[in-house]
Amino acid sequence: MIAKISETLEHINLQGGWPTPRLHPTKEIDAASSALFKQKDIQQNLRYGPELGSSNLRGAIADWLTESYAPKAGPVVSERVAITNGASNGLACALQKFSDPSYTQGVWMVEPTYFLACPIFRDAGLGGKIFGVPEGDDGIDLEYLGNRLQEVDERTDPLAEPRKTVQGGYPKIYRHIVYIIPTFSNPSGGTMSLESRKRLIKLARKHDALVVSDDVYDVLRWPASENEALEAVGAFTPRLVDVDRNLEGFSAWGNTLSNGSFSKIVAPGIRVGWVEAMPALISAMGTVGATVSGGCQAHFASIVVEKMLSSGALSSHIQKTLIPTYRARWLSMTKAIREHLYPLGVRIVGDEGEKAGKIAGGFFLYLSFNACAASGPTIASIALDEYNLKIAPGGIFSVPDDPESKVRGEDTYLHGARLCWAWNEEVVLVDGIKRLAKAILDASK
């Protein structure tokens, strides 16, 4: 019996959004941990941690964010920061404290979306209220979102009160939740402009929405042109939390929460993240039941990260290891796509080439198969079955709770795929793209 081609090829996974283990800063983690155990107060560090996290780490993160983003609204202060068990935990805790299944009218997710966030919303009791919003050339479609928010608000009793009360420990409940990844989005790779961010904040204020933005990829950024030095990357696009507090008319609670994580820049297993928002909202985050019971949900790991951040080891790791490595991989992948896939009608969504001034980053890019003779699902199936290549097909990025999500995606993201460059080395990435080209040719016969 002749073996299938796939049985002779080593598996390549371009779907998983994980950093390569060799990039984990093991020496730096070891040094930080060793330094902690040499401290005379190590026994204190092994106790329950403060609900909002170590004050030293909160301050170190605030300083790091201030240095990184240079927000026009002023420095980030520690009162704006709380420590979490990672971005997923940050989202879950925010929903526990600031949403109410009987009062919150909708969760609005950009489509294509990070589909693994959906179960977190369902666990918060918001199943049946999770809706998709199309993504345009500049992030979430704000006209569509505004119209849908207005429709829902008009059929909602304006006198309705949350079941979660102030007296019960819930000082603020939002009418809507908007979930997006505004910079180097997962899965599309897109980044919202500053003007669109301002418009989104104004919409959120009008409709009493909390915009939860996963800001987990922002610091992984580089010039798209390989002829430009890394130092030419320029200023960050202001985060939504900075736009919110810099726009006239902001409230004490605000309408944004920045959800950060060290999973992508230290290691996923470190299980430490942070949230940033207005001080009133952050203070309330410290009253989430599980946190009150057990203290900071990532206490010991968080003080390891504190050592790495305060010593400069983490910033050095990002600048000297992660960014150069990911940039080289991104360049190898995009060049291979243009060489092997573009002649077949494939395109990188939002591709402007490696022109001067363009910024790339994050973990992902999105391919469109719309101009191919074969469908996206067929291409993905043949790639896996015949070429032992796993890609993330567009169908998994719909909003499963919204029946109209896949209908809207029929002409766009459903006939595409997300690819990740963070896991594989350059030579493997190029091999994967060549296999994908063969799969497309096979699917088109």
Quick recap of the structure?
This protein has 445 residues and is an alpha/beta fold.
Instruction: Name the structural class.
Output: alpha/beta
The CATH topology assignment of the largest domain is Aspartate Aminotransferase, domain 2
Label the overall shape: globular
Radius of gyration: 22 Å
Give the C-level CATH assignment of the largest domain. Answer: Alpha Beta
Average predicted confidence as pLDDT: 93
Largest pleated sheet: 8 strands, mixed
Overall structural domain count: 2
Poorly predicted segments: none
InterPro entries: Aminotransferase_I/II_large, PyrdxlP-dep_Trfase, PyrdxlP-dep_Trfase_major, PyrdxlP-dep_Trfase_small
Protein name: Aminotransferase class I/classII large domain-containing protein
Domain Aminotransferase class I/classII large: 33-400
Features of the shown structure:
single chain; 445 residues; alpha/beta; Aspartate Aminotransferase, domain 1; Aspartate Aminotransferase, domain 2; 2 domains; 8-stranded mixed β-sheet; 4-stranded antiparallel β-sheet; 16 strands; 41% helix
